[in-house]
Amino acid sequence: MKNILIVEDDKALAEGIVLVLRQDGFSFQCCHNVKDAKKVLEKNIFDLILLDINLPDGSGLDICRELRKEERLDPVIFLTALDTEIHEVTGFQAGADDYITKPFSLAVLRERVMAALRRGERRSSSGKASPVLREGPFTIDSENQSFFMGDREILLSRTEQKLLMVLIKNKNRILERDTLIEKVWGNDGEFVDENALSVTIKRLRDKLEKDPRKPEYIQTVYGIGYRFQINEGESE
Predict the structure, then answer these.
(1) Phi then psi dihedrals of residue 170, to 5 deg
(2) Are 82 and 51 in contact (CB under 8 A)?
(3) Per-residue confidence in pLDDT tens, the chain, 236 aa
(4) What structural domains does the chain harbor?
Protein backbone atom coordinates (compact mmCIF):
# COMPACT_ATOMS: atom_id res chain seq x y z
CA MET A 1 0.00 0.00 0.00
CA LYS A 2 1.36 3.41 -1.00
CA ASN A 3 1.70 5.88 1.86
CA ILE A 4 1.11 9.55 1.05
CA LEU A 5 1.76 12.58 3.26
CA ILE A 6 -0.43 15.65 2.68
CA VAL A 7 0.85 18.94 4.12
CA GLU A 8 -1.92 21.46 3.51
CA ASP A 9 -3.40 24.12 5.82
CA ASP A 10 -6.72 24.12 3.93
CA LYS A 11 -8.36 21.21 5.75
CA ALA A 12 -11.30 21.03 3.33
CA LEU A 13 -8.92 20.70 0.38
CA ALA A 14 -6.88 18.04 2.20
CA GLU A 15 -10.06 16.06 2.90
CA GLY A 16 -11.09 16.33 -0.75
CA ILE A 17 -7.71 15.01 -1.89
CA VAL A 18 -7.97 12.07 0.50
CA LEU A 19 -11.50 11.32 -0.69
CA VAL A 20 -10.39 11.14 -4.33
CA LEU A 21 -7.14 9.21 -3.85
CA ARG A 22 -8.44 6.77 -1.26
CA GLN A 23 -10.29 5.01 -4.08
CA ASP A 24 -6.89 3.82 -5.31
CA GLY A 25 -6.10 2.13 -2.02
CA PHE A 26 -3.57 4.63 -0.69
CA SER A 27 -3.01 5.35 2.99
CA PHE A 28 -2.59 8.92 4.22
CA GLN A 29 -1.19 11.13 6.93
CA CYS A 30 -2.23 14.79 7.00
CA CYS A 31 -0.46 17.76 8.57
CA HIS A 32 -1.50 21.40 8.49
CA ASN A 33 1.74 23.17 9.38
CA VAL A 34 5.52 22.88 9.09
CA LYS A 35 6.09 21.86 12.72
CA ASP A 36 3.81 18.82 12.56
CA ALA A 37 5.09 17.84 9.11
CA LYS A 38 8.69 17.77 10.33
CA LYS A 39 7.73 15.58 13.28
CA VAL A 40 6.00 13.09 10.99
CA LEU A 41 8.88 13.09 8.49
CA GLU A 42 11.37 12.33 11.27
CA LYS A 43 9.58 9.03 11.92
CA ASN A 44 8.29 8.00 8.49
CA ILE A 45 9.25 7.64 4.86
CA PHE A 46 6.62 8.18 2.18
CA ASP A 47 5.91 7.08 -1.36
CA LEU A 48 4.73 10.63 -2.14
CA ILE A 49 4.41 14.01 -0.40
CA LEU A 50 1.80 16.58 -1.46
CA LEU A 51 3.14 19.83 -0.08
CA ASP A 52 1.68 23.33 0.16
CA ILE A 53 4.21 26.16 0.11
CA ASN A 54 2.51 28.89 2.15
CA LEU A 55 1.92 27.30 5.55
CA PRO A 56 0.96 29.10 8.79
CA ASP A 57 4.35 28.66 10.45
CA GLY A 58 6.74 28.55 7.51
CA SER A 59 7.37 27.41 3.96
CA GLY A 60 6.97 24.05 2.29
CA LEU A 61 10.05 24.97 0.26
CA ASP A 62 12.17 24.59 3.40
CA ILE A 63 10.69 21.15 4.08
CA CYS A 64 11.56 20.01 0.57
CA ARG A 65 15.08 21.46 0.75
CA GLU A 66 15.73 19.65 4.04
CA LEU A 67 14.56 16.34 2.56
CA ARG A 68 16.93 16.70 -0.38
CA LYS A 69 19.78 17.81 1.88
CA GLU A 70 19.28 14.56 3.80
CA GLU A 71 19.38 12.74 0.43
CA ARG A 72 15.84 11.49 0.89
CA LEU A 73 14.09 10.53 -2.33
CA ASP A 74 10.44 10.82 -1.24
CA PRO A 75 8.75 12.31 -4.36
CA VAL A 76 7.33 15.80 -3.70
CA ILE A 77 4.51 17.57 -5.53
CA PHE A 78 3.93 21.19 -4.57
CA LEU A 79 0.28 22.32 -4.38
CA THR A 80 0.24 26.11 -4.23
CA ALA A 81 -1.45 29.35 -5.20
CA LEU A 82 1.95 30.79 -6.20
CA ASP A 83 1.55 30.65 -9.96
CA THR A 84 4.33 32.79 -11.47
CA GLU A 85 7.17 31.32 -13.48
CA ILE A 86 9.77 32.31 -10.88
CA HIS A 87 7.77 30.58 -8.14
CA GLU A 88 7.57 27.40 -10.21
CA VAL A 89 11.30 27.49 -10.97
CA THR A 90 12.04 28.00 -7.27
CA GLY A 91 9.90 24.98 -6.44
CA PHE A 92 11.81 22.72 -8.81
CA GLN A 93 15.13 24.12 -7.59
CA ALA A 94 14.09 23.17 -4.04
CA GLY A 95 13.79 19.56 -5.22
CA ALA A 96 10.16 19.15 -6.27
CA ASP A 97 9.14 16.42 -8.71
CA ASP A 98 6.06 18.35 -9.87
CA TYR A 99 4.39 21.72 -9.30
CA ILE A 100 0.61 22.20 -9.43
CA THR A 101 -1.02 25.60 -9.04
CA LYS A 102 -4.35 26.23 -7.31
CA PRO A 103 -7.14 25.97 -8.16
CA PHE A 104 -6.76 22.56 -9.78
CA SER A 105 -8.95 19.67 -10.84
CA LEU A 106 -8.88 16.74 -8.43
CA ALA A 107 -9.13 14.40 -11.42
CA VAL A 108 -6.01 15.96 -12.95
CA LEU A 109 -4.27 15.86 -9.56
CA ARG A 110 -4.97 12.13 -9.37
CA GLU A 111 -3.29 11.55 -12.74
CA ARG A 112 -0.27 13.65 -11.74
CA VAL A 113 -0.03 11.67 -8.50
CA MET A 114 -0.16 8.35 -10.35
CA ALA A 115 2.55 9.57 -12.75
CA ALA A 116 4.79 10.68 -9.85
CA LEU A 117 4.39 7.29 -8.17
CA ARG A 118 5.33 5.50 -11.39
CA ARG A 119 8.42 7.67 -11.74
CA GLY A 120 9.31 6.95 -8.12
CA GLU A 121 9.09 3.21 -8.72
CA ARG A 122 11.29 3.45 -11.81
CA ARG A 123 13.80 5.59 -9.94
CA SER A 124 13.96 3.01 -7.14
CA SER A 125 14.53 0.10 -9.52
CA SER A 126 16.51 1.79 -12.31
CA GLY A 127 19.89 0.94 -10.81
CA LYS A 128 21.17 4.49 -11.39
CA ALA A 129 22.22 4.70 -7.78
CA SER A 130 25.35 2.83 -6.78
CA PRO A 131 24.58 -0.73 -5.64
CA VAL A 132 27.14 -0.24 -2.86
CA LEU A 133 25.98 1.64 0.24
CA ARG A 134 28.56 2.69 2.86
CA GLU A 135 27.77 4.12 6.28
CA GLY A 136 30.27 4.15 9.11
CA PRO A 137 31.91 0.70 9.35
CA PHE A 138 29.16 -0.91 7.25
CA THR A 139 29.14 -1.70 3.54
CA ILE A 140 26.16 -3.22 1.72
CA ASP A 141 26.64 -4.46 -1.85
CA SER A 142 23.03 -5.01 -2.94
CA GLU A 143 24.05 -6.23 -6.40
CA ASN A 144 26.12 -9.09 -5.00
CA GLN A 145 23.96 -9.42 -1.88
CA SER A 146 26.96 -9.13 0.42
CA PHE A 147 27.41 -7.23 3.67
CA PHE A 148 30.60 -6.21 5.44
CA MET A 149 31.39 -4.72 8.82
CA GLY A 150 34.87 -3.37 8.29
CA ASP A 151 36.73 -6.14 6.45
CA ARG A 152 34.56 -8.89 7.91
CA GLU A 153 31.75 -10.31 5.78
CA ILE A 154 28.55 -11.02 7.69
CA LEU A 155 25.97 -13.42 6.30
CA LEU A 156 22.44 -12.02 6.33
CA SER A 157 19.12 -13.50 5.31
CA ARG A 158 17.14 -11.71 2.61
CA THR A 159 14.78 -10.22 5.22
CA GLU A 160 17.70 -9.09 7.38
CA GLN A 161 19.29 -7.42 4.34
CA LYS A 162 16.09 -5.56 3.46
CA LEU A 163 15.56 -4.36 7.01
CA LEU A 164 19.17 -3.26 7.41
CA MET A 165 19.07 -1.39 4.10
CA VAL A 166 15.99 0.58 5.20
CA LEU A 167 17.58 1.38 8.56
CA ILE A 168 20.91 2.48 7.10
CA LYS A 169 19.32 4.60 4.36
CA ASN A 170 17.46 6.43 7.13
CA LYS A 171 20.35 6.64 9.57
CA ASN A 172 19.83 8.70 12.74
CA ARG A 173 16.08 8.93 12.05
CA ILE A 174 13.35 7.29 14.09
CA LEU A 175 11.30 4.84 12.02
CA GLU A 176 7.97 3.59 13.34
CA ARG A 177 7.39 -0.16 13.56
CA ASP A 178 4.52 -0.04 11.05
CA THR A 179 6.72 1.81 8.56
CA LEU A 180 9.48 -0.79 8.85
CA ILE A 181 7.04 -3.67 8.47
CA GLU A 182 5.53 -2.09 5.35
CA LYS A 183 8.94 -1.34 3.79
CA VAL A 184 10.38 -4.80 4.47
CA TRP A 185 7.36 -7.05 3.95
CA GLY A 186 5.48 -4.84 1.47
CA ASN A 187 1.92 -5.84 0.61
CA ASP A 188 2.23 -8.85 2.92
CA GLY A 189 2.89 -6.56 5.88
CA GLU A 190 -0.70 -6.64 7.12
CA PHE A 191 -0.45 -10.42 7.45
CA VAL A 192 2.95 -10.40 9.19
CA ASP A 193 3.04 -11.04 12.92
CA GLU A 194 4.45 -7.89 14.53
CA ASN A 195 6.80 -10.17 16.45
CA ALA A 196 8.56 -10.92 13.14
CA LEU A 197 10.08 -7.43 13.19
CA SER A 198 11.34 -7.87 16.77
CA VAL A 199 12.86 -11.24 15.88
CA THR A 200 14.63 -9.80 12.81
CA ILE A 201 15.94 -6.85 14.83
CA LYS A 202 17.30 -9.27 17.46
CA ARG A 203 19.07 -11.34 14.79
CA LEU A 204 20.67 -8.22 13.31
CA ARG A 205 21.84 -7.07 16.73
CA ASP A 206 23.33 -10.50 17.43
CA LYS A 207 25.35 -10.20 14.22
CA LEU A 208 26.31 -6.51 14.36
CA GLU A 209 26.52 -5.35 17.95
CA LYS A 210 29.41 -5.92 20.37
CA ASP A 211 26.82 -6.27 23.13
CA PRO A 212 23.33 -6.96 21.70
CA ARG A 213 21.81 -6.14 25.10
CA LYS A 214 23.28 -2.62 24.87
CA PRO A 215 23.04 -1.88 21.13
CA GLU A 216 25.23 0.88 19.74
CA TYR A 217 23.72 0.97 16.25
CA ILE A 218 20.19 -0.46 16.20
CA GLN A 219 18.54 1.48 19.01
CA THR A 220 15.03 0.99 20.33
CA VAL A 221 12.89 4.11 20.65
CA TYR A 222 10.33 2.89 23.14
CA GLY A 223 6.71 3.17 22.11
CA ILE A 224 7.65 4.21 18.56
CA GLY A 225 10.14 2.02 16.72
CA TYR A 226 13.87 1.97 15.98
CA ARG A 227 16.74 4.22 14.95
CA PHE A 228 20.00 3.25 13.23
CA GLN A 229 22.56 5.45 14.97
CA ILE A 230 25.73 6.47 13.13
CA ASN A 231 27.87 9.18 14.70
CA GLU A 232 29.31 11.89 12.45
CA GLY A 233 32.88 10.65 12.88
CA GLU A 234 31.87 7.18 11.74
CA SER A 235 30.13 8.51 8.62
CA GLU A 236 33.27 10.05 7.18
Answers:
(1) -115, 40
(2) no
(3) 789 999 999 999 999 999 999 989 899 999 999 999 999 998 888 899 999 999 999 999 999 998 888 778 789 999 999 999 999 999 999 999 999 999 999 999 999 999 988 887 766 555 444 567 788 888 888 767 788 888 888 988 888 988 998 998 888 889 999 889 988 887 665 667 778 999 999 999 999 999 999 999 999 999 899 999 987 555 44
(4) 3-125 (3.40.50.2300), 132-235 (1.10.10.10)
Contacts of 45 (CB under 8 A, 6+ apart): 72, 74, 166, 170, 175, 179, 183
Q: Is the pTM value of this prediction over 0.70?
A: no
Q: Report the alpha-carbon distance of residue 158 to residue 97 in Å, rounded.
A: 31
Rounded to the nearest 5 percent, the helix, strand and coil shares of the chain are 45, 20, 30
Amino acid at 98: D
Secondary structure (3-state) at 48:
strand
